[in-house]
């Protein structure tokens, strides 16, 4: 049962939030589902302090978990003790996020647990009746709801999934060690215990006597003593719980990061490696795949860009040209960019011209590699597209290539830029595109440096 | 890098330091004729010990090594054997790593995708005391020196010359970044190959000695953006 639950908890929120997905759901699950803004109410195991009720509620309604917790504690102070059984009841009945059933649903089949719960509850009843006979009103009013609490707690303790049980054991473990600490720590522990018990008993005595005499200020002294005793007794334990919670959260963040990385590697690298193995007989393809993968991994590792991110800067635009030309024409493109800035119309035109020049080189030059160098300076941006291919005699350009050169030229001059084409037969071609930057585009990238006229 | 336009009496003695055994054996097999591979190491500690024992002409050094990275090896060896030259090699283009290794004292940086002939050429160039800039490194350096140094940047330098590239050096770097060989650059700029080499060496010196904050900050910023 527990194993099954562990498996399912990995399936996530939406899978079990859709009604048609789970016709076999127990009735209890339905009762707590709410088709409000964000799916059903679920206990949030990620961000929990105890059972994850507050965190779950916060996510459900869109509040901050801390606010919900504070509200709950404040309510608890005025509820005459009913807040605790209410909380435990919710823990019992609301399924954890990703789990199939609530703890309560499983507790129905746990006859020994039910017996234990009833037993504990009746013991507490007896105790309360006894104190009632001794006529202590404070314990009586706040005590009765705890009969329910004890029963709920016993059921939760016995029926929670393994992960939750481990967490609970972790919370209680320091308490157990109060009784059976190591030999070294024992002496200090006994002193602490004795002092704490003395404080609590003294404080309670003070409180009870104050209760009878109804003096106004004296109960505060009693409360202070009790609080001091509790801090002394449980302080180190609380500190440890707080620290453990922080550590646990950090560990979870790391695990998520690792999962992200694994997903990325799987989606890209492993897939490509598989493709490469299948196309091992086509070296051209293999090289192309390897290059595309290398580029993607680099941009992810060193530039923090996920594949498919929108290109909003000049340098990113140049890299997009690289990707496209390599994919479409199968010629490797070496790109070096120096500086970067946001795109505007002029730089967009520069990119379009650079793309044409690069495609041109890939189609016609016959070079094995094309080099694209892009530099953004305060007053201008430059792209140099260079190949070591056939080259041509600029005076005897064939008509089809002349058309392309002219189209590049038109694009550039319309935006105030210029084109220089250097080429000689057998020595390759270099197209240098220069575009002045307008003040508006220059300002955000390098403040105070924008002075380029159109 | 330019073609094999230099002839050495003996092939340079090379030590390979890389934590990937597959890569080491690949390089050893490919470079077998042009250089003499006299040792291999895969970790910072053993590498330092080996280099100090063999005193090779050139150490081909992976930027990313377990136990401190390539720069730890350079820093340790340089103390006792300043004559040993390092050529950094990496599959990564993380600029801060590359710049750190160069600033520690490497004579150049090439990527692992470099062709065998280019690598052999780069090794003999470094063995002769020249600097080797891949097109990527040239881009990094231009980028790092691009912004005009602000007042706070200049102050700490004892020599302001170190904080800026001359326009000639920038031209040379631009052409390297565009994939030009030294010989092509010489022809393009109407200077000798020797002059190109001296420009590159001068850039390397500036890169290593400049106390410009910009360099470190640049690398950090690039990482973030």
What can you tell me about this protein's structure?
- The complex is a heterodimer of chains A (454) and B (225).
- Helices cover 64% and strands 8% of the residues of chain A.
- Chain A is of the alpha+beta class.
- Among the domains of chain A are: 2-180, no CATH class; 310-445, Heat Shock Protein 90.
- In chain A, β2 (370-376) and β3 (380-387) form a beta hairpin.
- Chain B folds into two domains: 13-135, Response regulator (Rossmann fold); 139-224, Winged helix-like DNA-binding domain superfamily/Winged helix DNA-binding domain (Arc Repressor Mutant, subunit A).
- Chain B has helices spanning 21-31, 44-54, 70-80, 95-104, 116-127, 135-146, 151-154, 167-177, 182-189, 193-209, 213-224, and strands at 13-17, 36-41, 58-62, 85-90, 108-111, 132-133.
- In chain B, α3 packs parallel to α4 (95-104), α4 (95-104) packs across α10 (193-209) and α8 packs across α10 (193-209).
- Chains A and B meet through α14, β1 and β2 of A and α6 of B.
Spell out the key features of this protein.
heterodimer, A: 454 residues, alpha+beta, Heat Shock Protein 90, five-stranded mixed sheet, 18 helices, elongated, disordered C terminus, B: alpha/beta, Arc Repressor Mutant, subunit A, 12% strand, globular, disordered N terminus
